[in-house]
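Q: I'm building a small set of examples for a reading group on sequence design. Run inverse folding on the following structure and report the sequence directly after it, with nothing in between.
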C-alpha cells in the first residue's frame, strides 16, 4: 500500500484516502488520490482530489473535482468555496 494518513478528521463511509487528510471533514464517497494533501477543509459527497493536489481552508460542494497538481489555499478566516459539480 501507499503512503496515506488521516489525522483529527471526520471521514464518512465509502471514502478512499490514499493521500493525507488533516483537520478536515469528508462526506460519503470522497476520494483523495496518492500524493494529495487536504488540510482544514470540508469536502462534500463524491468529491475527488486528484494526485499532487494541495487544498487548505477550502469548502467543496458535492461532486467537485480538483485536477492533478492543482493548489487551492484559502485563509482560515475566509475559506475558498467551490460550487457543486465544478471541475478545477
Amino acid at each position: 500500500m501507499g503512503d496515506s494518513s488521516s489525522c483529527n478528521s471526520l471521514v464518512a463511509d465509502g471514502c478512499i484516502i490514499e493521500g493525507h487528510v488533516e483537520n478536515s471533514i469528508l462526506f460519503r464517497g470522497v476520494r483523495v488520490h496518492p500524493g494529495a494533501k487536504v488540510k482544514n477543509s470540508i469536502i462534500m459527497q463524491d468529491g475527488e482530489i486528484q494526485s499532487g493536489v494541495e487544498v487548505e481552508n477550502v469548502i467543496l460542494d458535492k461532486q467537485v473535482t480538483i485536477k492533478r497538481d492543482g493548489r487551492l489555499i484559502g485563509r482560515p478566516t475566509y475559506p475558498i468555496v467551490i460550487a457543486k459539480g465544478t471541475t478545477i
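DSSP finds no helices and 14 strands in the chain.
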